[in-house]
Write a structure and sequence with these properties.
Jelly Rolls, 2 domains, seven-stranded mixed sheet
Length: 321
């Protein structure tokens, strides 16, 4: 692969283009400063303004959310997998119909495979702008997202209406739903009562992995983080492993699967036949199948990296207690 082609498959953190009107709560106070990033695949944005960096998808999507302190993402549920790791800041993830069934606080490098089929939201509780990187299961850009009823009601009070087609309309800007298109319906009581509200003990031990635990596990070989036989035993449609300077060899390697390299700490020299570059924290590198490459830290000090690998599993996380 030529250097130009391979470089086009690397999205630099500094080049990320945010969308500030991506979701229904874009005008709702407390959620109106969110920035949504779609890095690989169609993502789950409800806005035509969303920039997509790499449209091809290997069976899952890569995105990110950036938020200032005390800004939150409103309660919603997914039918597909949603995995986050904290790149910058300190974040509170919460779940339940009202967001009070349970919560967990994640620090930089921690990863959370949020179970499907439960309402979830998240908030930056740090003191500076924070960023979380996301892996979303499936090729469907809609992502199977359903908003809690109060989110839809609050949004309408601030001018945003979500159509049944999944497209947002801003009535404050003079937008109106097209003829024959209805607003997105809200869940009724029976549907709401069918959605689980698991406890902290049901979620955290099974779906959260801490950065420093992974650093210890990956001292000599990559740590399997998410997968059928991994630390978080699940089949979300992709596998995730974790690498450090002690668990990567500088030899050329190839795989018949898509591999997405997402540095967490340190600077990584990424080489392929015909070129090389340095990957930095927040960068995303989409390595296609059968592309030979080598990877090694380019400087001394702490170095860690998440690697997302395609597999043949059906998209969508499952409960595994």
């Amino acid at each position: 692969m030529t250097s130009l082609i391979m470089e086009s498959r690397i999205v630099r953190y500094g080049d990320l283009q945010p969308c500030r009107t991506a979701f229904i709560d874009a005008h709702t106070p407390g959620s109106d400063q969110k920035e949504n990033f779609t890095i690989l695949g169609g993502g789950v944005s409800e806005s035509a303004d969303q920039h997509v960096h790499i449209e091809d998808t290997p069976g899952f999507n890569i995105g990110a959310a950036g938020q200032p302190p005390r800004c939150r993402n409103s309660l919603h549920t997914h039918t597909t997998a949603e995995v986050f790791f904290v790149l910058k800041g300190k974040w509170r993830f919460f779940w339940g119909r009202r967001g009070n069934a349970g919560e967990v606080v994640l620090e930089e490098g921690d990863i959370f495979n949020i179970p499907t089929g439960i309402f979830r939201g998240f908030e930056n509780i740090g003191t500076d702008y924070g960023m979380i990187m996301a892996v979303l299961g499936g090729d469907d850009a809609g992502g199977g997202v359903t908003w809690a009823p109060q989110v839809i009601t609050d949004a309408a009070e601030h001018g945003l209406v979500l159509a049944e087609t999944g497209r947002l309309y801003d009535t404050k800007q003079g937008d109106a739903l097209p003829d024959g298109v209805k607003p997105m319906s809200v869940l009724n009581d029976a549907e709401l009562n069918a959605i689980r509200e698991p406890s902290i003990d049901e979620v955290v031990p099974h779906y959260v992995a801490r950065y420093w635990d992974l650093m210890a596990l990956a001292q000599r070989k990559p740590a399997a983080v998410i997968g059928e036989h991994a630390l978080i035993k699940d089949k979300p449609g992709f596998d995730v492993d974790f690498l450090t300077r002690g668990s990567i060899k500088p030899d050329m390697q190839t795989s018949d699967k898509h591999e997405i390299l997402m540095p967490m700490r340190g600077h990584w020299k990424f080489s392929w036949e015909g070129g090389s570059t340095v990957l930095n924290p927040g960068d995303t590198c989409a390595v296609p199948p059968n592309q030979a490459y080598s990877l090694e830290p380019s400087m001394t000090g702490e170095a860690s990296l998440y690697r997302v690998i395609s597999n043949a599993d059906a998209a969508g996380a499952t409960w595994n207690f």
